[in-house]
Amino acid sequence: MTTRKDKQPPRQALSREQVIDAALELIDRHGVEALTMRRLAEVLEVYPATIYWHAGNRAQLIARVCQRVFEGIELPDADSVPWTEWILQLAHRSRERLGRHPNLAVDFTSTIQISASSLTMADRLLAVLEDAGFTGEQLVMVYNTVLGGIFGWIAAEFASEPVAGDSDWVSEYQHALREGGGADLPAIHRNFFLVANRAFMLRWSSGRSTPMESSFDFAMRTMIAGLERMRDA
């Protein structure tokens, strides 16, 4: 006697949100370079055409993923903190959010952000700076300084290591800095144990494994203090 196989429940329709979520998870695990429409389709068990239908081409999909990450940056309350603290909180919240998705950090900062969330951040920052007393051309310069300082740092801190999975270059680089730089690079040689793997251009580990939080905080506070002095001059 044969039995009829149970019917499989109908697959629920795939949504754009599911595509974006799956793309972000794939990037988090394997990096942006691993994201292809075919691979994502395999993960979601659909045809590649379905991915294109919901999210556009690969560049458009990455832009949508970046927007999703941007949406997770909670803006500070401008009514409860002074403008200097508002900017500092924005900086740390942005770094914390992108730090959860370091594989996307560089693409995030190299992609022009055009979304409701990015426009809201832009509007709030402009309003905070206006209330602080910045106007005219100075307002534009300060605005660009703040966002460039925050997101430029984040991109540099979480940049990929030069040769993933190859440890030989690390020991060679360390030796070159510590031993070979005495004559040609005297300042690096003198300060090797202070700056080694802690300073830009002198690191062999990304901020993904060796965070630079204290340096980031110092940089943001220094930037804000400089803007405050310029305003009061």
From TrEMBL:
Pfam families found in the cross-reference section: TetR_C_1, TetR_N
PROSITE patterns membership: HTH_TETR_2
The organism's place on the tree of life at top rank: Bacteria
Protein name (record): AcrR family transcriptional regulator
Keyword Transit peptide: no
GO BP terms, alphabetized: negative regulation of DNA-templated transcription
Keyword entries, A-Z: DNA-binding, Transcription, Transcription regulation
DNA-binding residue intervals: 36-55
